[in-house]
Amino acid sequence: MAVPPATSLHSNHPVVAMVGGGQLARMTHQSAIALGQSLRVLAADATDPAAQVSPDVVIGSHTDLDALRRVAAGADALTFDHEHVPTELLQKLVAEGVNVAPPPEALVHAQDKLVMRRRLDALGARVPRYAAVESREDVDEFARQVDGPIVVKAARGGYDGRGVQMAADEAHAREIAGQYLDSGVPVLVEERVAMRRELAALVARSPFGQGAAWPVVETVQRDGICVQVIAPAPSLSEDAAAAAQQLALRLAAELGVVGVLAVEFFETADGELLVNELAMRPHNSGHWTMDGSRTSQFEQHLRAVLDYPLGDTDAIAPVTVMANVLGAAETPAMTLDERLHHLFARMPDARVHLYGKEERPGRKIGHINFLGADLASLRERGERAAHWLSHGEWTDGWDPHT
Ligand code: ADP
């Protein structure tokens, strides 16, 4: 099928189309504006975070080929705010001449944990011990080999820890894996890594082959959700940081990534780095770059998919702390806007990014960046500010009226 010419208002400028209308698309749109562009978005709903702000929105599903064709029509590149588009649909688009970035053969490594583990193994990257599960017996076989706690993972479809379950014991692992198998979901088991902490290396790669790496960060997780990111990762040796960056750049090149690639690591008790996950899009571990780096991950993603020269990834401050704002179990009576007002009154240096999302328990509704030099105080302020925006209460009992 011939791709019709761009119908956008911006026909003199490149058009990047993004599948998914979430906060990542919303923040990519912000960067597009600065480059004289406007991001075209495929959103499920007109109230989605990016659909609220982009004038160029296609409403439709990421599993509907016609909707994908409509958003891709005339665009210079088609890229993603999530990894849930089926490979077969992307291959059809490629065959029709769409510039899919990252291409489907690369993206599959961010979509399928089994495909990813196998490929990383083959490329010599260290990963946790794992096994594909085809029957309940495979779980027993693996349990005998690792002789320790086991994690059961759906190979596809998970995010923010959904689809990842820590098994209490072998019988439990069998049971969870069995449930996935019975519902036809491909599943794998992994050793539960005794880790010191989690790290992430964020890089970008352009079709020309240019690569750029940001400082390696620590991602602090609570209940399987990232709550804070510290850039750079505290007390990580220069050698370990450089090795993580080099591995991420090598993976980006070997897998043929175009755009931003996030490589999530576990740092084991003896300092070894094991790759946990890959994401081929702007990533939560890179939200700090909006204020803390010379080039934000959102601008870099656009530059990469359009094959522009990549931007400088240096940090602006010695330390940046990013704190996620998660919806509270009970939405506070005070409006979010009023909470924001109070936050600014107390912390004028807070760099706030809100996603225009309705507050729901545990949902990522925004993030706050703090730049400075004193790690402990930045972390404390990040935690306090995020808690305030979520709950409408100050963790130290602060009251502006007393
Ligand atoms: P998702 O793709 O849903 O984000 P991940 O595979 O990244 O899922 O896992 C989510 C979180 O679960 C990780 O950040 C980590 O805290 C924990 N986790 C996952 N796999 C393991 C493992 N093998 N050992 C220990 N913890 C794990």
Quaternary state, please? single chain
Distance between the termini: 68 Å
| CATH level 1 name of the largest domain | Alpha Beta
Weakly predicted, low-confidence segments: 1-8
Count of runs of 4 or more consecutive helical residues: 12
CATH superfamily of the largest domain: ATP-grasp fold, B domain
Provide the helix percentage. 25-40%
- Helix/strand/pairing category: alpha+beta
What integer is the average pLDDT? 95
Order of helices and strands: EHEEHEHHHEHEEHEEEEEHEEHHEHEEH
Present as ligands are: adenosine-5'-diphosphate
Radius of gyration: 21 Å
Named CATH topology of the largest domain:
D-amino Acid Aminotransferase, Chain A, domain 1
List how many beta strands DSSP finds: 17
CATH architecture of the largest domain: 2-Layer Sandwich
Q: Strand percentage, roughly?
A: 15-25%
Largest sheet: number of strands, sense, barrel closure: 9 strands, antiparallel
The backbone outline, from C-alpha atoms, is globular
**Integer tally of domains:** 3
Task: Describe this structure as you would to a colleague.
This is N5-carboxyaminoimidazole ribonucleotide synthase. Catalyzes the ATP-dependent conversion of 5-aminoimidazole ribonucleotide (AIR) and HCO(3)- to N5-carboxyaminoimidazole ribonucleotide (N5-CAIR). Belongs to the PurK/PurT family. With 402 residues, the protein is of the alpha+beta class. The chain has three domains: 6-100, Rossmann fold (3-Layer(aba) Sandwich); 129-191, ATP-grasp fold, A domain (Dna Ligase, domain 1, 2-Layer Sandwich), CATH 3.30.1490; 195-391, D-amino Acid Aminotransferase, Chain A, domain 1 (2-Layer Sandwich). Helix content is 32%, strand content 24%. It has twelve helices and 17 strands. The chain has helices spanning 23-34, 65-72, 87-95, 104-111, 113-122, 136-146, 170-182, 238-255, 289-292, 297-305, 336-346, 375-391; strands at residues 16-19, 40-43, 57-59, 77-80, 130-133, 150-154, 164-166, 187-191, 195-205, 211-213, 217-222, 225-231, 259-268, 273-279, 319-326, 351-354, 364-372. Strands 9, 10, 11, 12, 13, 14, 15, 16 and 17 form a nine-stranded antiparallel sheet that branches. Strand 1 (16-19), helix 1 and strand 2 (40-43) form a beta-alpha-beta unit. Helix 1 packs across helix 10 (297-305), helix 4 (104-111) packs across helix 5 and helix 11 runs antiparallel to helix 12 (375-391). 46% of the residues are buried. The model is unreliable at 1-8 (pLDDT under 50). It binds adenosine-5'-diphosphate (ADP). The site of adenosine-5'-diphosphate has 18 residues, from strand 14.
